[in-house]
Amino acid sequence: MKILLTGFEPFGGETINPALESVKRLHGLTIAGAQLLAVELPVAWNTAMPQLIAAIDQHQPDAIISIGQAGGRAKITPEYIGINIMNGKDNEGVVKNEEPIAPDGPDGYFATLPVSRMVEAMKAARIPAAISYTAGTYLCNYMAYAVRHHIVSHGLNIKSGFIHIPYLPEQVINKPTNTPSMPLETIVAGLKECIKVIAAE
Predict the structure, then answer these.
(1) What is the average pLDDT value for the chain, to the nearest integer?
(2) Domains and CATH numbers, the chain
(3) Whether residue 201 has pLDDT greater than 90
(4) Which residues does the annotation mark as catalytic?
(5) Distances (CA, A) of 62 to 44, 59, 156, 165
(6) In contact, 66 and 139? CB cutoff 8 Å
C-alpha cells in the first residue's frame, strides 16, 4: 500500500509550515505496511493541483492525505468535507473571490478517509484531535475538494482527505497570548495514528 502525503510551503508571512515539516518526517517510512511518500506543494491556486496530479501519476497511491496549517486551532482536525469555492490571495499574488473550484462539480465532496476512527485513534493515544466540518475557503479547502474531484472525474480508486494541524510553538512567540500550538513531535505522532487506521482499512 502507498500513501501520498502533501504539505504546503510556508504562507501568510510565516517562515515555516508545520504541514511541510511533518510530512518531511514521515517521508520514506513504512507504517502498518503502508509506504509513505511526501510531496511539497506551493500555496498557489494555479500550480498546486498540477504538481499533485503529476505525483499521483508517478506514484499511483492507494490514499492521499493532504495536510495544512490551521493557525488558531488547538487540535489535529481531519476535515469532513471540502466545498466548491476558492477565496483569498495565494503566494504568487493570484486572488480568488468566491469562485468555484470546478464550475461543473458538486457543491462539496466528503472525505473518503475514515475521519471518525482517525480522531478516535488519536484521542486514544492522548493526542488532542477533533473532527472539523469546515476547511475554510483557502488552499486547504481547495485541496480537500480538488483532489476528490480529480479522483472522481478520472475514475481512480484512491481514498483521500485533508487534515488541519496547529501552529508550532516557535510560530506563536510573537502572536497574541494563548494562541494555541502543538509540538512537531506530537503532530507527527498524531498523523502516524491516522495512517495506522487508514492502512488497516
Answers:
(1) 97
(2) 2-200 (3.40.630.20)
(3) no
(4) 79, 140, 164
(5) 25, 9, 9, 23
(6) no
